[in-house]
Amino acid sequence: MTATAMTTSGTAPRARGGFLRAVYIVWWRDLIRFWRDRARVAASFAQPLLYLVIFGSGLSSALGGSFGAAGGVSYTQFIYPGVISMSVLFSAIFGGMSIVWDREFGFMKELLVAPIDRTAVAVGKTLGSATQSLLQGLILLVLAPLVGVTLTVQSFVALLGLMIVLAFGLSAMGVAIASKMRSMQGFQVVMNFLMMPMFFLSGALFPLVGLPVWMTVLTRLDPASYGIDPIRRTVLGAPAERTAMTIGDQIVPIGIEALVVFVFGLAMLAFAARAFQQRD
Questions:
Q1: Lower CB density within 10 Å: C or N end of the chain?
Q2: How far is CA 238 from CA 47, 150, 204, 251, 264, in A?
Q3: What are the residues whose beta carbons fall under 8 Å from the beta carbon of 251, sequence distance 6 or more?
Q4: Which residues pair with 246 in a beta bridge?
Q5: Rounded to whole angstroms, how far apart are CA atoms 180 and 61?
Q6: Residues with Cβ within 8 Å of residue 250, at least 6 apart in sequence
């Protein structure tokens, strides 16, 4: 083997190791910052609980305690998967805020001038945000017995996989948007403009059946719909099939929904990586 070949073969593993180490450092730093911000942690848990209590109790009473479209499932049980998904959604998208924060305080500039692949920054930020949102969603699972939902080992494992996909897809979206933002105020305006329509059109609070045509189209264009629907079907089982997402007259399989969210996440991550590569 020539010296050039030996050098080349040794450079590739070092490059891969450096990339993974950079991803790990960015990911770990975001987790530490999240855990130390106790006010943010408390607020991120309180908001879903308020939705569950206010909407669950109030609208359940207004609907007579039973949500007919879901086959006799109470409204509180119906929105419970949506509340879990809401926690994942809000935390995942706002995870991109750390990019804008780091840019304003100069840390992002240090990362971008460091001798590492800038793609590692996008990947590390996405994984850090996804991990934070996943942890919050998992903690909300302890409320399942309180709303009358029983989770088996099989359903928990399936639910974990779906939540990972949803957290990844939405975190990548938040990072992609943040990669183009230069101020915290601009990021918050854009996020609030996108988040609330995404949440309300995702089917977290109402079934995605029997809607007006224009709203049906919007719900099918909302990537969060393809993440929340399989989570509800996994948590509630057979009753949720009556409100499952359909295209035409066909119920969309859970695997296809998860694939849509995953591909969406990959596209957003590619966009974010390209934005970091082009940034001065």
A1: C
A2: 28, 13, 17, 13, 27
A3: 241, 244, 245
A4: 251
A5: 44
A6: none
Residue that is written with structure tokens 């040794």 in the block = 10
Cα 84 to the chain's mean position, in Å? Answer: 11
Q: Tokens standing for 236?
A: 């509630």
Q: What is the pLDDT of residue 257?
A: 94
Nearest-angstrom CA–CA distance, 268 and 261: 10
Q: Which residues contact 264 (CB under 8 A, 6 or more apart)?
A: 169, 172, 173, 223, 226
Indicate the range of 14-23, 73-82, 171-180, 210-219 predicted with least confidence: 14-23
Distance CA 12, CA 75 (A): 55
pLDDT at 6: 38
Neighbouring CB atoms inside 10 A of 17's CB total 10
**Spatial distance between the Cα atoms of 222 and 245, rounded to a whole number of angstroms:** 12
Helix (H) or strand (E) holding 250: strand 250-251
Write down the H helix ranges in 2-37.
Answer: 3-36
- Bridge partners of 247, per DSSP, are 250
Q: What angle do CA 139, 146, 239 make, to 5 degrees?
A: 95
Q: In terms of Cα–Cα distance, which of 236, 209, 239, 248 is closest to 225?
A: 209
